[in-house]
Structure formats: structure tokens, C-alpha cells
Amino acid sequence: MIQNMWYGILDAREVKAGKPVGVTRLGEKLVLWRDDQGKVACIYDQCCHRGAAMSHGWVKHNHVVCPFHGFEYDTSGKVKLIPANGRSSKVLEQYHVQSFHVEERYGIIWIWYGEKRDAYPEILFFKELREGFSYGQFSEVWPVHYTRAIENQLDVVHLPFVHTNSIGRGNRTLVHGPVVIWEDHLMTFFVKNEVDDGNTIPLKASEIPDYRDLFSLQFQMPNLWQNIISDDIRIVAVFAPIDDEHTQIYIRFYQRFMKVPILKELVNFTSRFTNRYILHQDRRVVITQIPKKSELRMGEHLIPGDAPIMEYRKRREQLKNGVNW
Ligand code: FES
Ligand SMILES: [Fe+2]
Questions:
Q1: CATH for the stretch 5-113
Q2: Which residues sit with Cβ closer than 5 angstroms to ligand 2, an ion?
Q3: Which of 19, 49, 165, 203 could form an SS bridge with 176, CB 3.0 to 4.6 Å?
Q4: Residue 81 CB less than 6 A away from ligand 1
């Protein structure tokens, strides 16, 4: 994992008022709940008493209560009450578990993975989607490391093979470029694929001066992607790492062309079926990839069309090594 970054880990609606929820994210067992003000808290989901999961317990005011012997934890992970010791007994410092800094923004729960700070950097969600759009969503778990799931969405070469009857229709197997541009931790890549007439040599990225007019997609480090279908329609994916072999993928269809309430919901709901169909075409192949986790240097022979994947791997490696930008 890259340290000191915000990771989208859950749809905010998964954390309901009055009920703790247990998930594994970034290889950690976590319990999340909402305090009296509705603010989301997150601590390690293993009771310091005898190891039960607090996520199977309940919420009491701002605290989460372990279902085994009733230890009450506050949002910082400290035990505030040990019922068997009596309300009048002071709880010692060692009764605590690790807490995690989380924020709820844009309908997503974000976790800060790294050292605690007084002030945290901005959450880098796609600027134009921050308001004015509505969305429909579906989510599923893939049995792959999150890097493989991400790279699949950066792969402009696979379209005519994996999506023959959907988004890859038309046999456009020849890949020009692609052009990859970074702005901070946001990668934009521009796609120009065409049918191979047997004579055309693919253009290098530097040979495509009008690339800004091309179809483009974006990837925001460390785990957000968007397909810019048009000004008013986007598909966004959040790749929430579960552990080394599993990823929870949230796919959202964002639109702002339909604003009439019921029709809007219908459009957003219907989008799920198409997106699920396309994603399952990908999944069929991606789960077969070996090795499970991608690395900058491994025994793969990439081609020029894999530029966005190569760029992602390089950036990830630099960030893992603590290079500042
Ligand atoms: S295991 Fe949680 S209170 Fe005993
Ligand atoms: Fe695909």
C-alpha cells in the first residue's frame, strides 16, 4: 500500500445510524459506526479484552460496545467502561485499540492510511463531479489484488477482445499512443484506437498533436478512476483494497442530463445492468492473471499501448518509496 494517502473504502450508505459495520480494508479488520452527530468513526475490530469483533455488538451514544463482555469503546479506540469492574472504576490506558482517521465526502467513506496528523490534505475526488450530478451504483468483490483491478481500467488494448459485443465493438485493434498526462496525482489518458488496415503504423504519443480532442479517461491515485463519456455522463470506479487477494469495486454511473426525480432514479438504476455486464466481461479474464499483484518490475512484456499501466506502476512505485511531488 502507498502510505499517507486517502483511500475510498466504502459507500457512505453502508454505515447506517445506530449500527456498527465490520469490514476488511487495506488488510485491516475495521469497525465503523456513526456517533450522535452522524460522524463516522473507525477503529480496529478486535476487542482488546478477548478478541471478539465489536462490529457484532451495538452502538451506545458515541460508543461501540463489544457483544462479549460489554467493553465500551470511544471513537479514539479507548475503552471507557468495563462493566464487570463497575462504573466507579477507572479504566487504565492499556485498554484501547488502534483508531483510524476517516472522513465522509461525496457519498464515500475515505480512510487516511498513514501517520496521524493535525491537519489532513484535501480528498482528491474528481472536481467536476463534486456537485450537480446524481448517480446509481453497484458493487462487488473481485478475487484479485487492487492493482490488477485498476490496471484493467487503464488497459486500452483489451477492448476489442474482452468487450467484442459491447464497448469494444468494431474491431479497433490498432492502438495509437496513448497519450498520458499527469497533473499532480491525476492521470489523464487519451485513446485513439482504429481498425487495422494492414498498412498503418501506430502513432507514438508525441505524434498525436490533437490528442485533447480524443476520448479520455482519468485515474486519481491511489484508487479512483473515471471514464469521461461526455460532459454530462461519467462512470466512476472506486477500488477499495480488502486484502492482497480481494478488492471491493464500487462502480458509479454519474449523470446530470436527467433531473426529473423519478426518471433520474430510473436512469441511474438501469445503468447498473450495463455496467455490471461490462465489468463481468473484464472479471472473467482479470481473475486469471498471474502474478496476482502487479509490480513495477516483473516478468511481463508490455507494449506501447500499455503506457497508462506503465505510468501507473511507476507512479505507484515512487509514492511507495516516499517520493514527494
Ligand atoms: S472480548 Fe470484548 S468485552 Fe470481552
Ligand atoms: Fe474492460
A1: 2.102.10.10
A2: 282
A3: 203
A4: no
